[in-house]
Write a structure and sequence with these properties.
The protein has 509 residues and is an all-alpha fold. The chain is built from 23 helices and no strands. Helix 4 packs parallel to helix 6, helix 5 runs antiparallel to helix 8 and helix 10 packs antiparallel against helix 12. It starts with 7 loop residues before the first helix and ends with a helix.
């Protein structure tokens, strides 16, 4: 028994919802820093305000993944979560640009990101559930296409509304321009409509069918992907003690070296490590016999038993997402300062530069959408690992090249490399990962995999502000250069990843 190969349009339908999800995500990435500055945030404070987003993903995605693994009703397995997340994200998009104060805006970012994560996480598992091994690269590439397409329009919306429809791009102090507000309203409508399209045009396999597919794959390859024996209470306690000590050591190091005096956000890193260790200890203390754990204990059990391929990809994801997170929170400041020569967020020149950043984001997302169909072709020739390594390296070089460009129009050139890297980040790691995951835990592990996206974002939010202020003396363009170096390291680390689907493809020949 094996999964049916889906037609192009079936893959199109099951991926279409990502158009709207990315529409909201791109509006957030391109405009939230601008909203924060409009409401009075200093440039070095912006990363810590953004920390709500990754922490939300860290908590929400594994829980939603685990719940969707256990869900099966007349609405399906993953689709109910698509719908719930879409409704709440739409409401957040309508309210975000109308936030009356900085801290309310930061809170709305938290709510918006939580809602996006509720929809986004099951979409990743959706591809692993519905597509056979040989079509998964195409499936994630299709998602990448819709991500790029949605982001193109969303990123450029303020620019288009201002220049094509003469919508005001300037507002009084502490007021978000009308061009940004209308962009968020449009984004909410597009998001809800596209997710509803996928919900009503796609089907899902039952849990029993997925188990049968998994058993067939194991027979063909001789490689087991089923979960290992449950973690015992003593293993929970041992791992918890180790992580608690690491968290305490990191916290005391920050405290006694004075690193936390001006950079209190560094305590977040130590605090999260400490909380993780304490949670494991609690599970070890309350856990009785070593039976199959459920709920949060089940998520922690799966985390400690993650497949080897997933651990290897974690390193790649760390360097990749550290770079792109830096780009999202700092590109407006880097370009307006380095190219336009202004840091005054109320000036027409600053807002002109901020709108141009929206165009740059639109270009890299357009390239991402186009290359989404090219990536599977390249991967068939040289392999997914080599494809991803080349894409990340090209993206890193493109980041670094921003330092040498002073002409706004010339900034379009490195966006080509950035777009190629982004398209690969959205597809290749997931295509490689799904081959190493048990079918019954696809959602849980996709949620856990998000840890390795979130952790670098939390680290970036904790340290980039101080690095930009103290090491780079507020020359934000140097932070972008650092991000480029991180992306190149990600490309090198891909070479050490094991792609288990290679074994399955060979077994079926």
């Amino acid at each position: 028994m094996k999964k049916r190969r889906l037609s192009f349009w079936e893959i199109w339908n099951m991926s279409f919802g990502f158009l709207g999800i990315q529409f909201g995500f791109a509006l957030q990435n391109a405009n939230v820093s601008r909203i924060f500055e409009t409401l009075g945030a200093k440039v070095e404070d912006i990363p810590i305000l953004w920390i709500a987003a990754p922490i939300t993903g860290l908590i929400i995605q594994p829980i939603i993944g685990h719940l969707s693994d256990k869900t099966w009703n007349r609405f399906g397995r993953r689709r109910p979560y698509f719908m719930i997340g879409a409704v709440f994200t739409t409401l957040a998009l309508f309210f975000m640009p109308n936030s009356p104060s900085l801290w309310i805006a930061a809170g709305m970012l938290w709510i918006m990101d939580a809602s996006i994560n509720i929809s986004m996480e099951p979409f990743r598992a959706f591809v692993g559930d519905n597509l056979p091994t040989e079509q998964r690269t195409k499936g994630f590439a299709m998602q990448s296409f819709f991500i790029g397409t949605g982001a193109v329009v969303a990123s450029a919306l303020p620019y288009m509304l201002t220049n094509w429809f003469r919508v005001s791009n300037i507002a009084g102090e502490g007021v978000v321009p009308l061009s940004v507000k209308l962009s968020f309203y449009i984004g909410g409508v597009v998001l809800l409509a596209s997710v509803l399209y996928t919900v009503f045009t796609s089907k899902e396999y039952s849990p029993e069918e997925l188990i049968a597919f998994e058993e067939e794959k194991e027979r063909a390859t001789g490689v087991k992907t089923m979960a290992k024996a449950p973690v015992t209470p003593s293993q929970f306690l041992k791992n918890g003690a180790v992580w608690t000590l690491i968290g305490l050591a990191a916290t005391f190091l920050i405290m006694f070296t004075g690193l936390g005096d001006q950079n209190k956000q560094l305590y977040i890193v130590g605090g999260l490590l400490l909380v993780f260790g304490v949670v494991l200890i609690i599970f070890g203390l309350i856990k009785g016999k070593p039976d199959e754990p459920t709920g949060l204990a089940g998520i922690m059990n799966d985390l400690l038993h993650m497949p080897r391929t997933m651990g290897q990809l974690a390193v790649v994801q760390f360097f990749s997402w550290l770079a792109f997170y830096a780009m999202w929170i700092y590109t407006v400041q880097a370009i307006t300062q380095h190219v336009y020569g202004t840091t005054d967020s109320t000036s027409a020149l600053y807002n002109q530069g901020a709108n141009w950043v929206g165009v740059l984001f639109a270009v890299y997302n357009a390239v991402s959408a186009v290359t989404a169909f090219l990536l599977p072709v390249i991967a068939r020739q040289i392999g997914r690992k080599a494809t991803h390594a080349i894409a990340l390296t090209l993206g890193g070089i493109s980041f670094i090249s921003l330092y040498f460009i002073k002409d706004p129009v010339m900034l379009l050139i490195p966006m080509i490399g950035v777009g190629f890297a982004w398209s690969s980040i959205l597809s290749m790691p997931y295509a490689i990962l799904t081959g190493a995951l048990p079918a019954g835990k696809m959602g849980t592990y996709m949620g856990i995999f998000n840890f390795f996206i979130v952790i670098p974002q939390i680290l970036a939010a904790s340290i980039l502000g101080s690095i930009t202020r103290d090491l780079f003396h507020r020359q934000v363009i140097l932070t972008m250069t650092l991000a480029g170096c991180s992306l190149i390291l990600g490309g090198l680390s891909v070479l050490f990843v094991q792609d288990k689907d290679d074994v399955y493809r060979l077994a079926r020949r």
